Amino acid sequence: MTRPxxxxxxxxxxxxxxxxxxxxxxxxxxxxxxxLHARIRGEFQEMPGLSLTLAQAxxxxxxxxxxxxxxxxxxAGAGVLCLRPDGRYAAKLTAA
Length: 96
Known about the structure:
48% of the residues lie in helices and 8% in strands. By secondary structure, the chain is mainly alpha-helical. It has a single domain (29-96), classed as Arc Repressor Mutant, subunit A (Orthogonal Bundle). Strands 1-3-2 form a 3-stranded antiparallel β-sheet. α3 crosses α4 (65-77).
């Protein structure tokens, strides 16, 4: 697996806490939750080497850490993401 470049690490470290979309709230509909899952899945698919800590993912997606943890864990449970031993979430590798 390719390690992220210094430029990518710097870009992720400087991610603004301004959300890319409206933050997930407990009152959000199932459709909105599905859209959030699809958006997060898409980010990892578009950048195959992307691996994020919970804090980085929460900032990137405009969620609280608790909300982000719930979504990332659901995606990991569905086999879309994996939680690496170093605590980073990454796209689950599929056999070619």
